[in-house]
Amino acid sequence: MASPTSLHPISGQPKQPDIPYHPDEAKWRARTARRLAEDPCLPSTPLPEGFPKRLIGPLVWEGEQWADESLWAYSLSEEELQEIDRAVRHFEDSGRPLTQVDRTTFPLPKLSHTLHSLTIELYAGRGFFVLRSIPTGLYTPYQNTLIYLGLSAHIAPTIASQDPANGSMLGHITDLRSKDENGSSGAPAYMNVSQPFHSDPGDVVSLFALGEAEEGGESKIASAWWVYNELAETRPDLVKVLAEPFPLEMFNRDPPYQLRPFLFKCPHDDRIIIQNARRLCTGFEGLPRSPSVPPLTEAQAEAIDALHFLAEKHCVRMKLRTGDIQYVSNLGLFHAREGFVDSPQKKRHLLRLWQRNEELAWPTPPALEERFKVLFKKVPVEKQRFPLEPDIRSISRGRGLDAKAKRA
């Protein structure tokens, strides 16, 4: 049984465990040692009913397998780049809005077959790939956005809203602290700090590199299935914890929190999905965890840290170069980022989409159906926006800075 939440020494009320947004390995190991000393039988806990003892398949890997980047980076040929350029001109000549970018309006007669093969890797292979290298300097911000949407339409054409409060379907990942009056956006995506391993919403997260930092900013990817296997073998009690509801802070929304597991099993087969939402459990700077949200248990705190440190142990690291587009499965992988330093000459700037390929999509676990429905169908087409300039998502602004987010 999960260990209870400790009590505040003065009020006697449950208190949040000492678990910061940026993982502390010493605290994790001390918590693990303490919990195992209190209950040595924890590693003998049965797995939740129906969950596999071991996952198998190409999604189970360790980072050293991908040390050779030629195994996962696809360099676009001059012929393919010319095909992309013709698609840009074709779409611009049509006079259509960006909401109408699809496989027919952004035609790629030859490259589309290669993109389909790469998409299979997302859903039935290793779970990631990088397209390299689009000559971003030859295009305007609008055209680079069009290229990103056009290529993505041939990979995972259904996209989720980044910001339902204002209809934005496209995110800008860059250091935006200067845009916030408090100097903190409330979300690490808009700062230059590191990000622990986590999952984004939806099936696929993609990032288009428009600019590189002067130093740092490396991307890290890890197999969530490998992490699951490690836990199932050594700490099945934590698998059980992850499959039970966590109180997740909703930041500026009503109600202020949701109860949702981290771990889900797909219907009809042994595939599992881990929606690793660390920031919703810990808060971060301008968006701290509200006292009105029930605290985590010590077991939940240990499980969250275990996901990070096991992923860190066997991740693959990559440097996204300007013109690269990285596609990563949110279903079978975690991703993270190192901190970075910009300079006047070099500034890290990525575009982000959350995507889904309806033809290849895994069966959605019942507990995730409503969440995925909201993600991908909330904003009607006529209200969708594709901002060309960076802005902070409504939900990621410091608490109370954006009243619209409360209604999102």
Description:
This protein has nine helices and 19 strands. The longest helix has 17 residues, at 78-94. The protein is globular and about 70 Å long. Helix content is 26%, strand content 18%. The protein has helices at 25-38, 78-94, 111-124, 141-153, 224-234, 236-242, 279-282, 298-313, 366-377; strands at residues 73-75, 128-132, 158-159, 171-174, 195-198, 204-211, 215-216, 219-223, 246-249, 257-260, 263-265, 272-274, 283-284, 287-288, 316-318, 325-329, 333-337, 340-341, 349-356. The two termini are 36 Å apart. With 408 residues, it is an alpha+beta fold. It has one domain: Double-stranded beta-helix, CATH 3.60.130.10. Helix 6 packs across helix 8 (298-313). The strands form six sheets. Strands 1, 2, 3, 4, 6, 16 and 19 form a seven-stranded mixed sheet that branches. A four-stranded antiparallel sheet has the order 5-17-8-15. Pfam families: TauD. Residues 1-23 are annotated as: Disordered. It comes from Coprinellus micaceus. Residues 96-354 form the TauD/TfdA-like domain. Keywords: Oxidoreductase.
Question: What's the gist of this structure?
Answer:
By secondary structure, the protein is α+β, with helices and mostly antiparallel strands. It is 26% helix and 18% strand.
